[in-house]
Amino acid sequence: MSLRAAAALDCRGFQSAGAVENTAPPPVLSCPPGTIPPPVPQVACNRLEKEKDVKEEKTYPPEQTILHSILSSQVRHLCSPCYTSLQPHERIYSMVSGRACQLCPLRDLRPDGFTEPFCDFLTNNPTIFHAVSHFKGQLSKAGFTELSTRDNWADKLEPGGRYFVTRNSSSLMAFTVGPDYVPGNGVAMIAGHIDALTAKLKPHSEKPNRAGYVELGVAQYAGALDSTWWDRDLSIGGRVVVRDPETKKTTTRLVKVDWPIARVPTLAPHFGIGILGNNNKETEAVPIVGLESAEGEETLGQSGSFVSKQPPRLVKLIASQLRITDFSQIINWELELFDLQPATVGGMDKEFIFAGRIDDKLCSWAALQALLLSAAKSKSTPNSSSSDSKDGVIKMVALFDDEEIGSLLRQGARGNFLPITIERAVEALCSGSSSSTYGPGVLGQTYANSFLVSADVTHAVHPNFLSHYLEDHAPKLNAGITICADSNGNMTTDAVSNSILRRVGELVGQTTQVFQIRNDSRSGGTVGPALSSAMGVRSADAGIPQLSMHSIRATTGALDPGLGVKFFKGFLDNWEKVDGEWS
């Protein structure tokens, strides 16, 4: 059914998804039996050969489908125009109601429209593997093509295309190529990190029972297991390595338990020992996951096998979640504990978001939604004479693992994932260009024309500790993006890059804030310096403010995810224009 036909129907005349237009192929003309078909004329042969050489132009999902992907499965209320513009399989009758439309605020970049989708993302994707999987689903729905790092990209990339690639299932690069792109043009990049402080299971997570409790062997990732982790409802999730005994194939599968299985209990103050002291994280911050069974616990698997080193009841739980009956199929896993309390909106006027893992899923989520929305608005304008209407750059979002522990692993920012992705993309696009040959010249030109926004959360001003902030460098919630500076090189912002981001703010109607740490405080780092120095690109650090950074549960503004989306989209859409204003 066409969109025009769908729009003409009211609720009482709604047609089912099964009522589709006839798409049967036209009849094939055949020769009578025993006769030889006449030869195809030479002119027709030439025309057919030419048609073989012409690539079919790829069509991309409409804007409404991309907006739908941002809301994920939480679409409940749509206005009639938004409803009828969805694909038939996306329509649910109950979506049309008298309540406010959920898609219109996204299309209009109203910050309040992004609050609920961000909260849903945080709640539904507690581990880095779930977050990357979610992003992959969004990108695929928006028409992005997944690239394999093992393949040759020479014939896979073209101007106007949309692509993404992952590494270790915990880092992701997504990018679009402008329809007016020519080799040597720049890359507008936003880079952030998806990892967050957590407690990971040790390779041998089974511990001897103490005082009748079953405990779990975990190790802190970055600064986890501090006092904010005590007395929290903790669940478990991550990825499991599974080997199929029939096919002999090995795969990874995601798992997430939807009820709390662990807790790090505090010691009552009556004993005279508070939880805010220097507790030993190895012996005093051990999660309890059950009570010792009177029947005892039988060891699962063969001696020395992976499952034999894990708590038997945990193995059975994970296997049941994956519907695995043969425990020997589980040959390894990367599991972590996470706070199960959902992200929620709070405050008297619902002006806050209270959630876990805000650092830095906040900037990462906002940047990727910005790329999706930028792709939805992108239009081909080949040979356009107007610089404002040209779209000749690569727009890229790079999301990394391991930032909280130094970015030194291959999926971290100090690895080669971002520069090698750019180099391979430029090489592939050169192979399809008759006027450019890939080499150090075109690659150096690409980096010289590029810009990196290092996007990480920053510190919002804390009303109870005002003396720890500089008076004019104290970002507020719900007030827009903050440009961060550091005179010791922990941030990449300088006078030029600061001016560039302020210009982006002008174009999207946002006033930027500024943050710098006091001289008597310690500044944190970002992925910016490592990436900027590796590629030699101009760069600035900018992020979204939050309270309680590195706590198991933090606070940001309810409008801040949407303000981030609007600013990052403004950067991607206007980088070419802003760069052209510099002489």
Automatic annotation (TrEMBL):
Gene3D superfamilies assigned to the protein according to its UniProt record, in alphabetical order: Aminopeptidase i, Domain 2, Zn peptidases
Keywords: Aminopeptidase, Hydrolase, Metal-binding, Metalloprotease, Protease, Zinc
GO BP annotations, alphabetical order: proteolysis
Top-level taxon in the UniProt lineage: Eukaryota
GO cellular component terms listed in the entry, alphabetical order: fungal-type vacuole
Molecular function terms from GO: metalloaminopeptidase activity; zinc ion binding
The protein's required cofactors: Zn(2+)
UniProt similarity note: Belongs to the peptidase M18 family.
Protein name: Uncharacterized protein
Source organism of this protein record: Zalerion maritima
